[in-house]
Amino acid sequence: MKIYLKKGREESLLRFHPWVFSGAIAQIVGNPAEGDIVQVFASDGSFLAIGHYQIGSIAVRVLSFDSESLSADFWERRLAEALSVRTACGIAREGVTNCYRLVYGEGDGLPGLIVDYYDGVCVMQAHSVGMFRAKKQICQALQKIYGPTLKAVYDKSSGTAPFKAGLDLVDGYLYRAEGFSDDEQEVLEGGHRFLVNWTEGQKTGFFLDQRENRALVEQFSAGRNVLNLFCYTGGFSIYALGAGAVHVDSVDSSAKAMSMVDKNVALNGFDASRHTSYCADAIAFLRDVPEGKYDLMIVDPPAFAKHRGALSNALRAYQRLNAAAISKVAPGGFVFTFSCSQVVDREAFALAVFSAAAQTGRRVRILDRLLQPADHPVNIYHPEGEYLKGLLLYVE
Ligand code: SAH
What we know:
Blueprint: E1 2-5, H1 11-14, E2 19-21, E3 25-29, E4 37-41, E5 47-53, E6 58-64, H2 72-89, E7 99-104, E8 113-118, E9 121-126, H3 129-133, H4 135-146, E10 152-155, E11 172-176, E12 184-189, E13 192-197, H5 211-220, E14 225-229, H6 235-242, E15 247-252, H7 255-267, E16 275-279, H8 282-287, E17 296-299, H9 311-328, E18 333-339, H10 346-360, E19 364-371, E20 389-395
Parallel strand pairs: 1-4, 9-10, 14-15, 14-17, 15-16, 17-18
Antiparallel strand pairs: 1-3, 2-6, 4-5, 5-6, 7-8, 8-9, 10-11, 12-13, 18-20, 19-20
Helix pairs in contact: 2-4, 5-6, 9-10
This protein binds S-adenosyl-L-homocysteine (SAH).
């Protein structure tokens, strides 16, 4: 099946941007179903790209700018390359870290695909029908690149693949090594132990994108009273406890997440008296926090804006939340504040935090600007891949 673009609309593909918008299409030859593989041509008939067809404003997500067949070899090459980038970055280290994001969509030349690796277990999420339909090939390629170290491949696309009739959207295992029957297992990150449950947990089970920011929190936590808001399974809390925080309070509205926090505290052998779990709304919790109780706060809320239309409300929400945190932190304290909303860019987030600081009237220094790590790479031709941003603030 072939797609011809309108004259002059080939520019972005020639610059390797991996999407074809429906408005750029002059003609569709054949009758592609959602998720079919289509070839894309310029108006003069020259080949541009091959990709997954989808219905909506993004009509094609490009898999290759070469005229090639999307055979087993293609998937193996792409996944092997993604793995070699992670290896080159030294993310997995024996006895320290055995989990990372293997595939981050467009950033790894595989638009619509996420694969997280948890010590031999790969959890995939398809964000497009094309990737969902390719899951068997993806699974086979994972078996090939990891060999006998692969314990399982779990497909968790039911919440992410665009729901269309004819797709069997039930999460489940695409592969399980003989004798492997668990739905959760322990992983190591930064030398700390974490239980990851990919069937019951949020997203693929663990937020791998905060690894480096957790390590930074670790550097600042010794001797401090720490508040971890929106803690999920307690990633930041465990690093803070490991670094010698006096006490850590962890807050999340999910009861399941909070029970995992308690398990993770125990798993790492920390004295339970140094940690308290609160299953609560973080914003209400913060309202009741006495001024000066905490000298280090982590504020890592879920995405407040999931689309452009929600942007101005989201910015106001970031401002309110950060003003509350900045006003409560002890003098000489630190606030690690984040946004994972893709539509809120770095500048907009910094401006929201600036307004928050101004509102409190306190003196605030920006000590560091934080981002997503190397296993969440941004395709330089697709800046939309950048989503996680944060600031490390020092509050006088
Ligand atoms: N910092 C975490 C990831 C946070 S994800 C980590 O390092 O793993 C965002 C979390 O916010 C989710 O766990 C979700 O359950 C929680 N959440 C969403 N709304 C909330 C609210 N109003 N109050 C408290 N927690 C909330």
